[in-house]
Amino acid sequence: MQTLFGRLYLAALTSVSERDLIFDLTCLQKRSARKKFRRQILDEWGCCAYCGRSKPSTLDHVVPKARGGKTTKENLIAACGACNLEKSSQPWFEWYRAQDFWSPEREERILRWVNQPQVLPPVLVPTFWSQQLLPLTA
Ligand SMILES: [Zn+2]
């Protein structure tokens, strides 16, 4: 009951759909969760974020890991193998602007993606609730 309540509260707080949270809660095996996480991002994009080629097969760290980029949804975009390899650890904005296939629409989509609200891990809910309830019960 508390878990469901916490889940609904978090969904309201962060505008995250409950479906996203259930996805996180039911994928207990790391490999399975990672696969679903990757597939969700690839499906949401449907094409390479940079060149627009269909059926991208890789995820690119917008801020490269080598530059402190994290493996979080808002820092991962779908990319074809060629773009991912070519961009490597260069800053995406400078690299992308220099490409023949640069498009303002795709650049805008990337910017919207990286600036989307971050999803709090559901595991934080019980801690959050206990912190909120402690002053009331003390
Ligand atoms: Zn591409």
Task: Write structural notes for this entry.
This protein has seven helices and two strands. The chain has a domain at 46-118. The relative contact order is 0.15. A two-stranded antiparallel ribbon has the order 1-2. The model is unreliable at 133-138 (pLDDT under 50). The protein is mostly helical. 55% of the residues lie in helices and 6% in strands. The longest helix has 16 residues, at 30-45. It has helices spanning 2-14, 18-26, 30-45, 81-87, 92-97, 104-114, 124-137; strands spanning 58-61, 76-79. The radius of gyration is 18 Å and the shape is globular. It binds zinc ion.
Shape assignment:
globular
Model regions low in confidence, pLDDT < 50 over at least 5 residues: 133-138
Mean pLDDT value: 79
Give the N-terminus to C-terminus distance in angstroms.
23 Å
Strand content: 5-15%
Major β-sheet, in short? Answer: 2 strands, antiparallel
Number of strands: 2
**Structural classification:** mainly alpha
Bound molecules: zinc ion
Summarize the structure.
The protein is mainly alpha-helical and 138 residues long.
